[in-house]
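re: ur question from the group chat, yeah i did fold both. here u go
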Amino acid sequence: EVQLQACGGGLVQAGGSLRLSCAASGLSFDDYAIGWFRQVRGKAREAVACIDKEGSTYYADSVRGRFTISSDSAKKQVYLQMNNLKPEDTAVYYCYAQGPWASRHYWGQGTLLTVSS
């Protein structure tokens, strides 16, 4: 069974840094791209960053230059290093995996990041 578990959220002061982790099981990083979405209550979920099996990365304009996504296939972990955090980064962050077919995708439960001003 495929499972994604996100952790590492918390309370951070503006300008600070934090790293989120996503632990994956039941899937191969050779077959899935994994990334992060975030959602503010009452607003649409938005893509933040992703990394594919070739190591290619994508970043939303709002986080490019501040966030870095990386993966460790041996540990089945994906990380999101977040630097120079801003209050507008406050959201629930979700880990997401996309397989070779559109229907083959999975969501983690989310972890809350709160950035204080």
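okk and heres the other one u asked abt
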Amino acid sequence: QVQLVESGGGSVQSGGSLRLSCAASGFTYSRVSSVCMAWFRQAPGKEREGVANIDNGGGTTYADSVNDRFTVSQDTARTTLVLQMNSLKPEETAMYYCAAAYSGRYCPPLSGQHYYKYWGQGTQVTVSS
């Protein structure tokens, strides 16, 4: 059974940085090479949105709003997913979620949340002005 556990959230001032981690376990061994992992976030009163994803070949996709400030990475065993967030803005205050999907060579689009079958419980990020 796939389990995703996020950590690293907290409070930071505008312009600051945070590093989120997601510990992943339970992927079917024969299908590990088809795993896509992603970060989503949901601010109060808003819909959940995709932030970044990374496919099994290391290819990454970012939401336009975070490009050049956020970096997603993972280890080759797919056990740890990391999101480095720099130059944070108050409007990025949200619950951040780790998600995963067996998707083949490439990741599903960030706009397609329904493709991601596995989700963590989330970690809160608060950015103060």
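fwiw on the second one: The mean pLDDT is 95. The radius of gyration is 14 Å. idk if thats what u expected
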